[in-house]
Amino acid sequence: MRIFVTGASGFIGKSVTKELLGAGHTVLGLARSDEAAAALTALGADVKRGSLYDLNALKQGAAASDGVIHLAFVHDFADFAQSCQTDQEAIRAMGDVLAGSSRPLIITSATMVLPHGRVGTEDDSYDPLWPKSAARGQSETLAKSLASEGIRTAVMRLAPVSHGDGDHMFMPALIATAREKGASAYVGDGLNRWPAVHYLDTAVAYRLALEKARPGSVFHVVAEDVRMKDIAAVIGEKLSLPVESKSKEEAQAHFGPFLGPLVSVDNPTSNRKTREVLDWHLRERTLLADLRDGKYFEA
Ligand SMILES: NC(=O)c1ccc[n+]([C@@H]2O[C@H](COP(=O)([O-])OP(=O)(O)OC[C@H]3O[C@@H](n4cnc5c(N)ncnc54)[C@H](OP(=O)(O)O)[C@@H]3O)[C@@H](O)[C@H]2O)c1
Predict the structure, then answer these.
(1) Distance, CA 245 to ligand 1 centroid (Å)?
(2) Is 111 in the pocket of ligand 1 (CB under 6 A)?
(3) pLDDT digit string, tens, across residues 223-232
(4) Would you say the C-alpha torsion 43, 48, 49, 55 has a positive or negative sign?
C-alpha cells in the first residue's frame, strides 16, 4: 500500500516509516521544512510538503494514498487545547477525502487520556473530567464517528513512554530534572504506574493496525506498566544521586509545570486485546533495561 504518514519526520514517525518500507509498503511523508523533507528522502520515502495548518495539503496527501497514519501533533503544552483542536481539524480534513473508501485512517492518542488509578482497557473511553484527556479524547470520538462514514479508522493510544534511542519526551525530562535538582525523585510511595513501550515495537503496532484493524478499533501501544519509584531508582543509580520521595506539593516545585502534574499519575493499561487482535509480539527490551544499558545517559 502507499501510505500518507503525517509526523513521518518525528521520533516515532521515522521508525513507522522504516517499518512500513521494510514491509513492502511505500510512504508519502508530510514535511513542513527542508530538513524534514531531506530526512524522509534519506529514509526512502516520498515527500508531501505542507503542515498541519494546511488542510489542502493534508487532503491531497490522503487522496494520493491507500491509507493514512496520522502521527503529527503540535506539542504546545502551554496551549494544549488548541493543539488538540488542530489535531481534530487535520483528522476531519483527511476523513473528508477518505469517506466511503474503506481505506485505513490510523490516528494517535495516549493512554493518559484514560481514567487514572485503575487498569484501562481498549474498551474504555477517555476521562471527560480531566481537561487534557477530554481535549485529546475528542480526536478519538471523531475517529469513531468517521468509522461510520466508511473509513477503516483505528485509534492508537500510546504509552507516555516510547523509549529508545532518540526519545525526547518524559525520560530525558526526568533525567534532566534529577541532574538539575541533585536528586532523583518520585511522589509519595512511588508505586504509581506509567505504561512504557520500546519505539520499535510501537512501529510494528502501527503497521499491523494499518494492515488489520477493523473500523472503529482502539489499540493500546503498551508493553508494560512501570512503577515510578523503579524509574527514579535507576536514574539515581546511573547519576549517583540520592533517590527521594516528594509530597504532591513538593513535586510541583521539584518537577516544574510540565512534569509536575503528571509524575503522580497512576495509569496502568492493559494491552491484551491489542496483542490478540493484531497478533503483536513484543521483541524489544524493557524500559528499565533501556535506562540501564541504552543511550539515555550518554553526554
Ligand atoms: N514520544 C512519546 O513517548 C509519545 C507518547 C504519547 C503520545 N505520543 C504521540 O505520538 C505522536 C508522535 O510523537 P513523537 O514523539 O514522534 O513526536 P515528535 O518527535 O515531536 O514528532 C512530531 C512530528 O510532528 C510533526 N509536526 C509537528 N508540528 C507540525 C505541524 N504544525 N505541521 C506538520 N507537522 C508537524 C513534526 O515535524 P518536524 O519534524 O518538522 O518537527 C514531527 O514529524 C504524537 O502525536 C505524540 O503526541 C508520543
Answers:
(1) 32
(2) no
(3) 999 999 999 9
(4) negative
pTM (whole model) above 0.85: yes
For ligand 1, atom 41, which residue shows the shortest CA distance? 10
CATH 3.90.25 location in the chain: 162-195+225-268+284-293
3-state secondary structure of 146: helix
Q: β-strands 224-227, 193-198: how paired?
A: antiparallel
Give the SS3 label for residue 217.
Answer: strand
Is 203's C-beta closer than 6 angstroms to any atom of ligand 1? no
153 alpha carbon to ligand 1 midpoint, in Å?
20
CATH fold of 162-195+225-268+284-293: UDP-galactose 4-epimerase; domain 1 (3.90.25)
Amino acid (one-letter) located at 60: Q
Least confident residue range of 34-38, 176-180, 197-201, 256-260: 256-260
Long-range CB pairs of 48-53 (<8 Å, 24+ gap) are 48/4, 52/6, 52/86, 52/87, 52/90, 53/86
CA 21 to CA 178: how far, in whole Å? Answer: 38
Rounded Cα distance between 128 and 133, Å, is: 7
Closest CA to 50 of 94, 88, 100: 94
Cell 503544552 identifies what position?
A: 77
How is domain 2-159+198-222 classified at the CATH fold level? Rossmann fold (3.40.50)
Question: pLDDT tens digits for 248-272?
Answer: 999 999 999 889 989 999 999 999 9
Counting ligand 1 atoms within 8 A of each CB, the residue from 6, 17, 32, 56 with the most, and so the one to mutate, is: 32
Q: Ligand 1 test: best mutation among 18, 48, 71, 87, most atoms within 8 Å of CB?
A: 71
Residues in contact with 176: Cβ distance below 8 Å, sequence separation at least 6, in sequence order: none
Cα(52) to centroid(ligand 1), Å: 11
Our answer on whether the CB atom of 277 is closer than 6 Å to any ligand 1 atom is no
